């Protein structure tokens, strides 16, 4: 397997993505949007795992210069400006998508995006932007709404949610479902019982924050993603 870093920009800001390539000449592209911690080892591992599944996988950089936080406070300080300025958030992920399309070997008719926690919000906003990609998958993502493009939501939407996620209360889930239905989206939401926020991350074990790894939900959500890819591609 080959990996490399590639650059893209938004205005004067530089961003660095990590790309893993499968052992074949042409493949679908999967964008991976990181948690609030930045483009860290977790999403780079997911990129390599997706490459092993036969995809060109691009772990995007939402913060610029591949910055990675080391504390809860630092992570929050990097994430908050984008959560509060959703148009900027969309501009960064759209720039990553356009750069991804330029990667040699990408089958531009087969593109999807997945995201974790904050990254779930990122890929859902990519769908809300009207981007003409095949689908998006949110793993324990933040589900607060945002403006939807006049062209509507073209990508199919899969949300993989932890039923006990304290960061995504039932009211937010209900509002999200209404938003997707009113937008005419092709959407699904799978809720994993007894699963908390960050259920895919083996390092997640912070009861006060409400994050906890869940092996069953991790395996089931990954399989649901693969099934979804089989459908949309």
Stated plainly, the CATH topology is called: Rossmann fold
The largest pleated sheet is described as: 8 strands, mixed
Low-confidence stretches: none
The succession of helices and strands, N to C, reads EEEHEHHEHEEHEEEH
Number of DSSP helical runs: 6
Helix content: 25-40%
Strand arrangement, major sheet: 1-2-4-3-5-6-7-8
Please identify, by name, the CATH architecture.
3-Layer(aba) Sandwich
Please, how many domains?
Answer: 1
CATH superfamily: Alpha/Beta hydrolase fold, catalytic domain
Terminal CA distance reads 22 Å
Layout: helices, strands, pairs:
Blueprint: E1 2-10, E2 13-21, E3 27-33, H1 41-52, E4 56-59, H2 72-84, H3 86-101, E5 106-116, H4 118-128, E6 135-139, E7 156-162, H5 170-182, E8 187-192, E9 205-206, E10 211-212, H6 215-232
Parallel strand pairs: 3-4, 3-5, 5-6, 6-7, 7-8
Antiparallel strand pairs: 1-2, 2-4, 9-10
Helix pairs in contact: 3-4
Name the features.
233 residues, alpha/beta, Rossmann fold, eight-stranded mixed sheet, 6 helices, 10 strands, globular
Molecular structure report:
- The chain is of the alpha/beta class and 233 residues long.
- It has one domain (2-232): 3-Layer(aba) Sandwich (Rossmann fold).
- It has 6 helices and 10 strands.
- A hairpin with a 4-residue loop joins strand 9 (205-206) and strand 10 (211-212).
- The longest helix has 18 residues, at 215-232.
- It is globular and about 40 Å long.
- The two termini are 22 Å apart.
- The model has no long low-confidence stretch (mean pLDDT 97).
């Amino acid at each position: 397997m080959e990996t490399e870093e590639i650059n893209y920009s938004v205005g004067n800001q530089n961003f660095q993505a990590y790309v893993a390539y499968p052992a074949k000449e042409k493949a679908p592209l999967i964008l991976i949007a990181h948690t609030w911690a930045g483009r860290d080892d977790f999403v780079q591992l997911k990129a390599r795992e997706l490459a092993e599944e036969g995809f060109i996988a691009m772990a995007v950089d939402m913060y610029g210069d591949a910055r990675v936080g080391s504390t809860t406070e630092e992570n929050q300080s990097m994430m908050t400006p984008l959560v509060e300025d959703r148009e900027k958030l969309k501009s960064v992920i759209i720039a990553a998508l356009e750069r991804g399309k330029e990667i040699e070997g990408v089958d531009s008719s087969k593109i999807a995006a997945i995201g974790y926690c904050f990254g779930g919000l990122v890929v859902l906003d990519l769908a809300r932007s009207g981007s003409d990609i095949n689908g998006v998958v949110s793993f324990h993502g933040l589900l607060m709404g945002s403006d939807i493009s006049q062209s509507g939501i073209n990508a199919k939407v899969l949300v993989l949610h932890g039923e006990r996620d304290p960061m995504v209360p039932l009211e937010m889930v209900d509002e999200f479902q209404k938003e997707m239905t009113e937008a005419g989206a092709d959407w699904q939401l799978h809720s994993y019982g007894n699963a908390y926020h960050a259920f895919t991350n083996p390092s997640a074990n912070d009861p006060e924050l409400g994050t906890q790894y869940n092996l069953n939900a991790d395996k089931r959500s990954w399989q649901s993603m693969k099934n979804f890819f089989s459908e949309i591609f």
